[in-house]
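@here heads up, posting the sequence + SMILES for the (2R)-2,3-dihydroxy-3-methylbutanoic acid run so it's all in one place. Ping me if the SMILES looks off, I pulled it from an old spreadsheet.
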Amino acid sequence: MRSDTIKKGPDRAPARAMLRATGRDDAAMAKPFVAIVHPWSDVSPCNFTLRALAQHVRKGVEANGGTAFEFNTIAVTDGISMGTPGMRASLISREWITDSIELAVNGHHLDAMVVLCGCDKTIPAAAMAAARLNIPTVVLYGGTIDHGLHHGKPITIQEVFEAVGAHAAGKIDENELHAVEKDACPGAGACGGQFTANTMAMILTALGLSPLEVNDLPALHQDKNQAAFDCGKLVMDCYQRGFTARQALTPAAFRNAMRMLAATAGSTNGVLHLLAIAHEAGVTLDLADFDPISASTPVIADLKPGGRYTAVELSAAGGTARVAKVLKDGGLLEDHPTVENASIFAALDATELGEQPEPVVHPIASPVKPRGGFAILSGNLAPEGCVVKLAGHGRMRHEGPARVFNGEPAAFAALQAGKIQAGDVVVIRYEGPAGAPGMPEMLGVTAALIGRGLGSDVALITDGRFSGATHGLMVGHISPEAARGGPLGQLLDGDTVIIDVENRRLDTTADLGPRPTTPFNPRAQSGVLAKYARLVSSASRGAITEA
Ligand SMILES: CC(C)(O)[C@@H](O)C(=O)O
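bot reply: prediction finished. Complex structure tokens:
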């Protein structure tokens, strides 16, 4: 056992003395030590249930021969930080959560772990830690929030962000904005569309780090506690089999995860996070690898932000298993081992799915959209590539004058003041991993564009990133970023920008060659943001941090 390093032999008496003080006796110390890690926080509805859920995992571990040790890590809640300087902390937290898990698990030589996760960055961090530590690991997602009901219609946090734009444009009054705010989030759970958390939870299952079906259970579902117990049991089974995280994290698993991302028109953050997880797992994955997969995968799930349904309806319709089965039957999925089964195909075959109450998942033959929910572009504005979101619209080309903003707040203020016109290309730069720093999501701006009614006429390009709730013709992750000398820094107001999805190009007709870059002063001089700005890589590499 790894944990023998801290607990076996005469020299380890001091460590054992300390463990006894926490209630572990000789019998407990003879068993494998299993970490139960969770980012519980009552700032965040996404993580609100995790501490209680962890107790069920603990029971599952202890009933199956393990000694459980619980510790917590942090979370930054995007939906709360959005549009403020606090949003810079979000992506950064992914690295720090991963590192904190590594430090606590390795610091105590623990043998296996169950990681619970909820809000966006806690999910890739769980997978990154699993890949980095390569010990037997099961990851359990706390689950989606239920949708709210507003005037009898299901709504999510997406509609609140869009209502802000509608309110600024005078389309709704303050009372209506307040009513949307009150109706949108009825209880605990992570944001309810195929936004980042639900996208990443599905990716965990596709990667084989979570068993089928558990992540789809909404946060307040009656079966969630049993699922948590079962995950505790499962990690002991993985431990007995010697099944470690990297045995699940094969190249085929990553290809499946990219398919599921494309097939559900999920969050473009999935691209960033898969690159980072692959890096930790030692699997070669490049930004360019995503494009052919998305191009050859139809969107088969009719989910918000582009579609009609939320994760609650998807769960009732069979969830990830149904999406995976349709892809498998269409020859678009590959077999690989998972935490629960030597073959994900066998696990899918063993899963009974009834009729869908609502037509959330379509057959391959009549998809929601013939191609996947994103594409990878490059061009003279993005020599190292970028990601365009294709959820919920059919726009494949836009040509228009640049409206350049050195940061998100200036763009948001111009939009709310009615200064963005149909046809414009909103350019938001110096919001990349190093520039912002922390590559914030731009949901405030993208949702306000939709709410204002400009969603079909304006395009947006940025070296920042998008929320899972963003839809419309939005291009993010532009690499290299402006703060690291990327050509976005040379654009001027009025330059023509061309987004050409068919040809996978993002260009300007302006002659950038002789032009200087607009001067940029690093925003963070000290603390964690400054440290991160020095260490972080390009978005085209998943914004991983390197020593
Ligand atoms: C919806 C939020 C808050 O923007 C985020 O959770 C995401 O999906 O990226």
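MO: The mean pLDDT is 96.
MO: One more: Residues 78-79, 82, 120, 157, 191, 195-197, 267, 269, 441, 443, 467-469 surround (2R)-2,3-dihydroxy-3-methylbutanoic acid (CB under 6 Å).
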